[in-house]
């Protein structure tokens, strides 16, 4: 479960992405357009230390882009190239925001979601000592096919692109940066996929694959 805070954040996630996305080779859209949120889903970090959120965003009339983020209370070692920026959170202090594809906590959570169909984390606020659940903005599911989830260790290599490949000690994950028919589909050798849909999307789209 993901505890949310009614907090002031500066700069906001979308402000960070508005500045960062045009620098990505896989980005399509007006570099001057403001990035807006379409939907989002979260995973749990079993240790409770790292926030894991995937945003579906669009800039202007451009396509929807999938951007997984991790939020950390300290820098991730050897990951400066994947740092999107820092933000000041009124409840949690300084947060380092990373493109999650290089974060081993995200890779492990994504493998669990693809192979074990663990779904997304339930989001809630604490209000006067009571839990107030926020309804999800989209749905995700997988087709694991009875495959065991291996332990995912270090991220050994990331090949960034429209199909971003995350190579770990045990599995290879592919993230579709633009989860639509134009994104190129899933790679050969795929054994399981993560799909999802939000308001206005009637057919679930592939978001990630594992081989």
Automatic annotation (TrEMBL):
Keyword Kinase: yes or no?
yes
The question of whether GTP-binding is a record keyword is answered with no
Residue stretches spanning the membrane: none
Q: Which stretches make up the Maltokinase N-terminal cap domain?
A: 20-103
Please provide, alphabetically and separated by semicolons, the GO molecular function terms listed in this UniProt record.
ATP binding; kinase activity
The record's annotation in Pfam families points to: Mak_N_cap
Sorted keywords for this record are:
ATP-binding, Kinase, Nucleotide-binding, Transferase
Name this protein carries in UniProt: Maltokinase N-terminal cap domain-containing protein
Organism, as annotated: Micromonospora maris
Q: What is the lineage of its organism?
A: Bacteria, Bacillati, Actinomycetota, Actinomycetes, Micromonosporales
């Amino acid at each position: 479960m993901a505890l949310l805070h009614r907090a002031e954040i500066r700069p906001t996630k979308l402000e960070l992405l508005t500045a960062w996305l045009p620098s990505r080779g896989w980005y399509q859209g007006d570099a001057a357009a403001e990035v807006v949120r379409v939907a989002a889903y979260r995973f749990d970090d079993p240790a409770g230390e790292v926030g894991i959120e995937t945003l579906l965003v669009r800039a202007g009339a451009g396509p929807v882009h999938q951007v997984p983020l991790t939020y950390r209370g300290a820098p991730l070692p050897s990951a400066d190239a994947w740092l999107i920026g820092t933000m000041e959170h009124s409840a949690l202090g300084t947060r380092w925001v990373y493109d999650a594809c290089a974060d081993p906590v995200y890779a492990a959570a994504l493998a669990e979601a693809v192979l074990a169909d663990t779904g997304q984390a339930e989001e809630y606020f604490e209000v006067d000592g009571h839990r107030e659940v926020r309804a999800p903005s989209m749905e995700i599911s997988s087709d694991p096919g009875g495959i065991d989830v291996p332990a995912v260790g270090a991220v050994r290599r990331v090949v960034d692109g429209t199909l971003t490949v995350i190579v770990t000690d045990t599995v290879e994950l592919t993230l579709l940066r633009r989860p639509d028919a134009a994104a190129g589909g899933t790679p050969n050798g795929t054994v399981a996929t993560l799909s999802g849909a939000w308001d206005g999307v009637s057919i679930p789209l592939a978001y990630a694959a594992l081989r």
